[in-house]
Amino acid sequence: MTRRDEVECWLTDMDGVLVHENRPLPGAAELLQQWRDQGKPYLVLTNNSIFTPRDLSARLRASGLEVPEEFIWTSALATAAFLKDQMPGGSAFVIGEAGITTALHEAGFIMTETAPDYVVVGETRNYSFEAITKAIRLINHGARFIATNPDATGPSADGPMPATGAIAALITKATGKEPYIVGKPNPMMFRSALNKIGAHSENTGMIGDRMDTDVVAGIEAGLHTILVLTGISDQTEINKYPFRPSEILGGVVDLLEPHPVESEVV
Q1: pLDDT by residue (tens digit) across 23-55?
Q2: pTM across the whole model
Q3: Alpha-carbon gap, residue 263 to 220, rounded angstroms
Q4: Torsion sign over Cα 85, 90, 91, 97
Q5: Which residues of 203-213 are buried (b: 16+ CB within 10 A; e: fewer)?
């Protein structure tokens, strides 16, 4: 098993690890700076497929964290990379927002409502009965069913709201077809992230706040897994699962290394 001091590349979840409700968590800015100073490749990951990396970079900057867009990897980007590999130049009917439509366009996909190769469901706040009906009929006529991530709900200031998994479940109920899900807990999302930064699983660490997505996917991808307790997991939650992360820390602040003390010049 890889020890933390052997980790040369990092993947980190965003919400509950670096930020909480648009505020940086203790140590987040310093950890990102530490990786930059050490020249360690890293990516910030999110299962949310609404926003493009540019959008997310701007949101993080507004929160006080500097993460250039090329250091952000979303379930939308992972989905587009997967579909490009499966069927270069393919076509898709998409229920989703800029995050997934932009990623698929940049991967060379055509958006169409006429006999698409795929129906792709991503995170959205604007789905319609008409669009869901169209998706159901296209899947029944042979389109392959893909979802960016399995999350049934997402957070908001007023409480949980339905997310990708809930919309996909509605389509599954009507078609009898389960989607192939690319985002966490599918370890493929981590593998595609590793490919993006040229990293190898044996020397890469992953930081997350959820046992059921981050940690299990990290374990299955062969990574050094760190669970932080600044998100939704506590010891009771951890004990529900038959697997364990490599480390459990209070937060990313515990990953900061002390600065070497400069010796005084006499």
Answers
A1: 999 999 999 999 999 999 999 999 999 999 999
A2: 0.92
A3: 45
A4: positive
A5: ebbbbbbbbeb
d(CA 44, CA 186): 17
**What is d(CA 10, CA 258) in angstroms, rounded to the nearest whole number?**
19
Structure tokens at 198: 């040229």
Q: Tell me the C-alpha distance between 165 and 188, whole Å.
A: 18
106-119: pLDDT as tens digits: 999 999 999 999 99
212 labelled catalytic:
no
Task: Centre a 10 Å sphere on the Cβ of residue 261 and count the other Cβ atoms it contains.
Answer: 6
Q: Catalytic pick from 5, 13, 55, 234?
A: 13
> Residues with Cβ < 8 Å from 41, sequence gap 6 or more?
8, 9, 10, 197, 198, 199
Question: Which residue among 15, 117, 151, 214 is the active-site one?
Answer: 15
Pick from 78, 82, 81, 60: nearest CA to 69? 60
Catalytic residue status for 13: yes
